[in-house]
C-alpha cells in the first residue's frame, strides 16, 4: 500500500508569509505525528494527533504554528508570519496507535526555506 | 529526564569493516520502547528495529545486530562487513510508556553519520 506522503516537497517563502504543509498518512493509521529536523536542533517533536484530536500542543515552537487534522486522515501544519529560524525539514509520521508498541512510518518531508 | 545520547557524531570506515553505533538512553519509566532508524542521503527515515524494555534478547538481521543492555541503559547497533550502501545517518530513539498510556512521540538522539568508503 501507499506510504506517508507530504506536499510540497520543497517550499521557499519570504519572511513574514504564511505557509501550509500537508501530510497524507497511511490509510487506517489513527495516530499522526509532526517532527522538525534542523541542523542545530536535530529531530524534534512538534505535535501529534489521535484521530482528529491534538491533546498536547506544547511541542509547537510558538503560537505562529498550528495544525489540524480532518476526517482522521490528512493533516495540515500551518506556520504564520514565517521567520528564518523556521527553515527546516518538516517530517510527518503515522502509526496505527499512540504507543511504542506501534512503529511510526515517515514521509519524505517538506524542506522549508525562509528567505 | 527522557533523553537519548549518541556520542559518535560521525564515523568513517572502509568497506567490509565492522562498525558499532552507540546509543545510551535515560528514562524514569519501567516500560519503554527503543528504536533505530536509518536516514540515507535521500532523506526519508527508514525504520530498522524496535525493542521493548522487557525483552533484552539481542537481535540479528542479516548483517545488522543489536545489543540491548538495561544494566548500562544502552542499545547499540552493529553492522558487520559494512557496505557503501550502509552510508547514512542513523538515529536511536526512545518512547517512554507511563501508566495510562503514552502520546507515543519519538525522542531522538542527535544521530550518527556513517560513511563507508569503498
The total of beta strands of chain B comes to 12
Please compute the radius of gyration of chain A using only Cα atoms.
Answer: 13 Å
User: What is the N-to-C succession of helices and strands of chain A?
Assistant: EEEEEEEEEE
User: Most extensive interface, residues per chain?
Assistant: A-B, 28 and 27 residues
The proportion of residues in beta strands of chain A is over 45%
Structural class of chain A: mainly beta
State the separation between the terminal residues of chain B, measured CA to CA. Answer: 41 Å
Q: Multimeric state of these chains?
A: heterodimer
Tell me the β content of chain B.
Answer: over 45%
Mean pLDDT of chain A: 94
Q: Helix share of residues of chain A?
A: under 10%
Task: Report the principal-axis shape of chain B.
Answer: globular
Number of beta-strand segments of chain A: 10
**Which structural class is indicated by helix and strand composition of chain B?**
mainly beta
How confident overall, as mean pLDDT of chain B?
93
How would you explain this protein's 3D organization?
The complex is a heterodimer of chains A (115) and B (118). Chain A is mostly beta strands and 115 residues long. Chain A contains no helices and 10 strands. Chain A has strands spanning 5-7, 10-13, 19-24, 31-38, 42-50, 65-69, 75-79, 88-95, 105-106, 110-114. In chain A, the strands form 2 sheets. In chain A, strands 2, 4, 5, 8, 9 and 10 form a 6-stranded mixed beta sheet that branches. Chain A has a 4-stranded antiparallel beta sheet with strand order 1-3-7-6, with no helix packed on it. In chain A, β4 and β5 form a beta hairpin. Chain B is mostly beta strands and 118 residues long. Chain B is 0% helix and 52% strand. Chain B is built from no helices and 12 strands. In chain B, the strands form 3 sheets. In chain B, strands 2, 5, 6, 10, 11 and 12 form a 6-stranded mixed beta sheet that branches. Chain B has a 4-stranded antiparallel beta sheet with strand order 3-9-8-7, with no helix packed on it. A two-stranded antiparallel sheet of chain B has the order 1-4. In chain B, a hairpin with a 2-residue loop joins β7 and β8 (64-69). Chain B is globular and about 50 Å long. Chains A and B meet through β4, β5, β8 and β9 of A and β5, β6, β10 and β11 of B.
Amino acid at each position: 500500500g501507499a506510504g506517508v506522503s507530504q506536499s510540497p516537497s520543497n517550499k521557499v517563502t519570504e519572511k513574514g508569509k504564511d505557509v501550509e504543509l500537508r501530510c497524507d498518512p497511511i490509510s487506517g493509521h489513527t495516530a499522526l505525528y509532526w517532527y522538525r529536523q534542523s541542523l542545530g536542533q536535530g529531530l524534534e517533536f512538534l505535535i501529534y494527533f489521535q484521530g482528529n484530536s491534538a491533546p498536547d500542543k506544547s511541542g509547537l515552537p510558538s503560537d505562529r504554528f498550528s495544525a489540524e487534522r480532518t476526517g482522521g486522515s490528512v493533516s495540515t501544519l500551518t506556520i504564520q508570519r514565517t521567520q528564518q529560524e523556521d527553515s527546516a525539514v518538516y517530517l510527518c509520521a503515522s502509526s496505527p496507535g499512540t504507543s511504542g508498541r506501534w512503529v511510526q512510518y515517515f514521509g519524505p518531508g517538506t524542506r522549508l526555506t525562509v528567505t | 529526564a527522557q533523553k537519548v545520547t549518541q556520542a559518535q557524531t560521525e564515523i568513517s570506515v572502509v568497506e567490509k569493516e565492522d562498525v558499532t553505533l552507540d546509543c545510551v538512553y535515560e528514562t524514569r519509566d519501567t516500560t519503554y520502547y527503543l528504536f533505530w532508524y536509518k536516514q540515507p542521503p535521500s532523506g526519508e527515515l527508514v525504520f530498522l528495529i524496535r525493542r521493548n524494555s522487557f525483552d533484552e534478547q539481542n537481535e540479528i538481521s542479516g548483517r545488522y545486530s543489536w545489543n540491548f543492555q538495561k544494566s548500562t541503559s544502552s542499545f547499540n547497533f552493529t553492522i558487520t562487513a559494512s557496505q557503501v550502501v550502509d552510508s547514512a545517518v542513523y538515529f536511536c530513539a526512545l518512547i517512554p510508556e507511563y501508566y495510562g498510556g503514552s502520546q507515543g512521540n519519538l525522542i531522538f538522539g542527535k544521530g550518527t553519520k556513517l560513511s563507508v568508503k569503498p
